[in-house]
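User: Second chain of the day. Same drill as before.
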Amino acid sequence: MSYDDDLEDRMAAEHQNRRRQANELEYIRRYYGLEQRHGIRVTIGGRVCSHGQEGSIVDTAGHRLMIQFDGASQPVCRQVTANMEYATADGWTAATPVPDRSANVLQGA
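Assistant: Same format as last time:
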């Protein structure tokens, strides 16, 4: 395998990784609606705080986020709304779970 082949393989893998992240971020944005509900835009590189620990979003893992907490050696997987705050233009904003739409139906709303 030549250097050019290796470079092409790495570039293709990076492209595929970015496409996966974009698709998973789109799903997260659509499902949780954090931008519409709280003004939170979930992005790679975005700052978060969970249980008093600050860090950055470094990847996605399906419908979850991979967070690299400041000072930690490895990223950890976190649910998007469970004890999560996101840095916004207005400061830290807590994310709340998606409202249970079936509860409204059961209550006759």
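The chain has a mean pLDDT of 90.

User: Great, on to the next one.
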